[in-house]
Design brief:
By secondary structure, this protein is α/β, with parallel strands linked by helices. It is built from ten helices and twelve strands. Strand 7, helix 7 and strand 8 form a beta-alpha-beta unit. Helix 4 runs parallel beside helix 6.
Length: 265
């Protein structure tokens, strides 16, 4: 069954003492979608994701999640907040800020324990995600002393242990080697196949193409200027240049135009 997960209506937002960031943001995301938010640095991707996760709140307009209007007061209710963060899992752009225990195992067990699950079920979940993420060997380690990519995997494991309906990942492949990137993308696609809603943010066009079937583009003026397929977006060179997602690396060979993240050698 499809139902709206998030609905933003005329949302306005600015950081304290900052210029208005969003002034009239409208967006609907339905259960089971895989959506990727694309935009240049500073376009507002992380801010929008944080809003969906209930970490910052609209100053104007309204945000609904699972049919309930979300505001700061509601998220101050511990019980509501706990349930909300269980349903909506968030992997930060920088995993460092998300890890806070001294053992990987405790890090992963924290969410399920907060949910009030019995110890046996918690242990089962911890073992399952350690295996799924192929990080059994890290279980006794301190999260602070892991490499950037390992930290990211632990952060993903900790969120997956709560079995969220919606997974929100900010720059999911940052810090991962190519094999781990491919593996994480495949995992997200599998989770989506199993019914999870997957929302990601990136400034890598090629990632948006493989990780989503709906791309939203935020302009440098923080406006949603595109909502559609990655394939159609890739054909819109003018828009890509306008939103600063493409530059001189776009070029043509005999077989037609294409782009690279880096210049040919
Ligand atoms: N905590 C904050 N306080 C004040 N301004 C902020 C804060 N966080 C972000 N901003 C500003 O809001 C704007 C959008 O930032 P945001 O982090 O959402 O962009 P982004 O699209 O995720 O960028 P990047 O690709 O670099 O991660 C930027 O101009 C940024 O400087
Ligand atoms: Mg960001």
């Amino acid at each position: 069954m499809t139902y709206p997960v998030f609905e933003l209506e005329r949302v306005g937002f600015n950081y304290p003492y900052g210029e208005p960031l969003f002034t009239d943001l409208n967006l609907k995301i339905t259960a089971g979608e895989k959506v990727c938010l694309l935009g240049a640095n500073g376009s507002g991707k992380s801010t929008l994701l944080k809003m969906l996760c209930g970490l910052v709140f609209p100053h104007a307009g309204r945000l609904q999640a699972f049919g309930t209007q979300i505001d700061e007061q509601l998220l101050e209710d511990d019980q509501f907040a706990r349930e909300y963060h269980r349903r909506v899992g968030f992997i930060f752009q920088n995993s460092e800020v998300q890890l806070f225990t001294t053992r990987v195992e405790d890090e992963i067990a924290f969410g399920p324990l907060q949910m009030g699950l019995d110890l046996e079920t918690v242990q089962q979940r911890v073992n399952d995600v350690l295996k799924l993420l192929r990080i059994e060997h890290l279980v006794e380690r301190s999260p602070y002393r892991l490499s950037g990519g390992e930290k990211k995997k632990v952060a993903v494991a900790a969120v997956l242990a709560m079995n969220p309906q919606v997974l929100i990942l900010d720059e999911p492949t940052n810090g991962l080697d190519p094999k781990s990137q491919r593996w994480l993308i495949d995992l997200l696609l599998e989770l989506n196949q199993a019914g999870r809603t997957i929302i990601t943010a990136t400034h890598h066009l090629d990632l948006a193409h493989v990780i989503s079937d709906r791309v939203l583009v935020l302009s440098e003026e923080h406006e949603l200027v595109y909502d559609g397929s990655a394939a159609r977006l890739l054909g819109n060179k003018d828009l890509l240049i306008q939103v600063n997602l493409l530059d001189e690396y776009y070029h043509s060979h005999d077989q037609g135009g294409h782009f690279h993240l880096y210049r040919h050698g």
